[in-house]
């Protein structure tokens, strides 16, 4: 999978992920993409190295006299962690948010065959799974600020670009974009936005000119 | 090629043997790599400590890591807004997490300081921001495979060079990066904190990931 990915995260997002300043919903999208993309994993881990260098050089704060003995008591108490089992159909970070696998998702229809499931994250940003039937357009959803759309299954087209599994589209408020699911297969995406997201009446973007909206 | 960071300080215990990856040393062949190996213990001794924890549940190694890193983690967490009591408790927990997750540490992809930073950062998000921190799927070496010794040495060396590069930055720029990583600015501001020589270390990690993927097949 990792070699076929052509649409990546930006350096600013990867650095912010490493520094730990992103809202939870964005962390989820970054962690999920990085699980699928070794190029972005390498970039994220190189930003982690910046954090490591800073930690190594930071001043010290004296620990309590019994700190080490408390820590030793804790490590004697618990066995080493066993490797986590690999989830079946989504990367591990996403599995924890959808109850295990795509089969466990509770979808809600939002019109024109499109379904969504809002995932529980902290309120500064919103994460949702979108299910777009093959050939259908994503409804207009008037996002503000930054939006990441990560393909998990199938593919979508936006303008001339094709986004397949693992690809992520990074869009800002200014971008005119009209994602349409590839005709071959239904498309499932993880979509994350800065602001709580409102669909405008569940109408697909393509229908709007005719309706004069 | 000189080391900028000094994981060991006067009065600390002597360095442990550099033979922390059994069998891997034989694969080092070139003269350049041999020279790197000779100077490796000073750079990579914290790596040896984590390997001793992983393979032998070595409490002495843990105590030495704790003495060096716990006070730094505590300072990091206090600077991120934690009060001293919470920072103290969290610093202990960060070091306990290091013990529990020792099998996941990959010295071909991170220095020990880097790895501890990621654990401390996640603790900060978990405790100070009260949020879950989604982390990428773990990629770790199986019991049969191990990263190449030369890759470990190279990555540890490049981590030291990155530290040196950060130390050479103008004060204002270094301060900006510190504020970003210590949780004192929002992600909108971070884009300004660039300009670090990260290409080399990124390529090195990518190479290590390729080798790991190959071994996982």
Q: What do you see in this structure?
A:
The complex is a heterodimer of chains A (213) and B (217). By secondary structure, chain A is an alpha+beta fold. In chain A, 30% of the residues lie in helices and 20% in strands. A 6-stranded antiparallel sheet of chain A has the order 1-2-3-9-4-7, covered by helices on one side. In chain A, helix 1 (11-19) packs across helix 3 and helix 2 packs across helix 3. Chain A is elongated, with a radius of gyration of 20 Å. The two termini of chain A are 40 Å apart. In chain B, 43% of the residues are buried. By secondary structure, chain B is mainly alpha-helical. The radius of gyration of chain B is 18 Å and the shape is globular. At the A-B interface, helix 1, helix 2, helix 3, helix 4 and helix 5 of A face helix 3, helix 4, helix 5, helix 6 and helix 7 of B.
Count, helices of chain B? 9
Mean pLDDT value of chain B: 80
Q: How many alpha or pi helices of chain A?
A: 6
Rough outline of chain A = elongated
Give the % helix of chain B. 55-70%
Q: Quick check: average pLDDT of chain A?
A: 85
Order of helices and strands of chain A: HHHHHEEEEEEEEEH
Sketch the major β-sheet of chain A. 6 strands, antiparallel
Rg calculated over all Cα atoms of chain A: 20 Å
- Beta percentage of chain B is under 5%
Give the number of DSSP strands of chain A.
9
> Which H/E pattern describes the elements of chain B?
HHHHHHHHH
Derived from helix and strand composition plus strand pairing, the structural class of chain A reads alpha+beta
Spell out the key features of this protein.
heterodimer, A: 213 residues, alpha+beta, six-stranded antiparallel β-sheet, three-stranded antiparallel β-sheet, 6 helices, 9 strands, 30% helix, elongated, B: 217 residues, mainly alpha, 9 helices, 61% helix, globular, disordered N terminus
């Amino acid at each position: 999978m990792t070699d076929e990915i052509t649409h990546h995260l930006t350096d600013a997002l990867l650095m912010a992920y490493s520094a730990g300043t992103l809202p939870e919903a964005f962390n989820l999208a970054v962690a999920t993409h990085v699980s699928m993309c070794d190029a972005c994993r390498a970039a994220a881990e190189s930003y982690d190295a910046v954090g490591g260098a800073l930690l190594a050089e930071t001043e010290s704060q004296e620990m309590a006299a019994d700190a080490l003995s408390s820590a030793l008591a804790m490590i004697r108490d618990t066995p080493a962690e066993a490797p986590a089992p690999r989830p079946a159909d989504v990367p591990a970070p996403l599995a924890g948010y959808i109850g295990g696998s795509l089969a466990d998702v509770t979808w809600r229809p939002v019109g024109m065959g499109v379904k969504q499931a809002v995932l529980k994250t902290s309120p500064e940003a919103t994460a949702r799974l979108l299910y777009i039937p093959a050939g259908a357009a994503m409804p207009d959803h008037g996002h503000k600020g930054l939006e990441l759309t990560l393909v998990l299954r199938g593919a979508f087209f936006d303008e001339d670009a094709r986004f397949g599994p693992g690809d992520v589209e990074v869009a800002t408020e200014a971008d005119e974009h009209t994602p349409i699911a590839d005709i071959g297969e239904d498309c499932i995406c993880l979509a994350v936005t800065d602001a709580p997201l409102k669909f405008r009446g569940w109408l697909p973007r393509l229908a709007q000119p005719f309706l004069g909206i | 090629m000189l080391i900028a960071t000094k994981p060991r300080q006067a009065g600390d215990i002597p360095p442990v043997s550099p033979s922390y990856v059994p069998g891997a040393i034989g694969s080092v062949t070139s003269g350049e790599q041999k020279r790197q190996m000779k100077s490796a213990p000073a750079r990579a001794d914290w790596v040896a400590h984590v390997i001793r924890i992983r393979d032998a549940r070595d409490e002495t190694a843990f105590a030495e890591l704790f003495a060096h890193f716990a006070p730094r983690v505590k300072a990091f967490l206090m600077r991120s807004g934690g009060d001293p009591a919470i920072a103290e408790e969290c610093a202990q927990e960060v070091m306990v997490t290091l013990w529990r997750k020792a099998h996941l540490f990959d010295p071909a992809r991170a220095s020990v300081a880097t790895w501890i930073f990621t654990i401390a950062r996640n603790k900060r998000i978990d405790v100070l921001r009260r949020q879950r921190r989604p982390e990428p799927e773990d990629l770790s070496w199986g019991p049969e495979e191990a990263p190449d010794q030369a890759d470990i040495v190279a990555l540890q060396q490049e981590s030291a060079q990155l530290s040196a590069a950060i130390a050479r930055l103008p004060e204002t720029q270094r301060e900006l990066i510190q504020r970003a990583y210590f949780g004192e600015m929002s992600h909108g501001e971070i884009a300004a904190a660039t300009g670090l020589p990260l290409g080399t270390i990124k390529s090195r990690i990518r190479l290590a990931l390729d080798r790991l993927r190959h071994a996982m097949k």
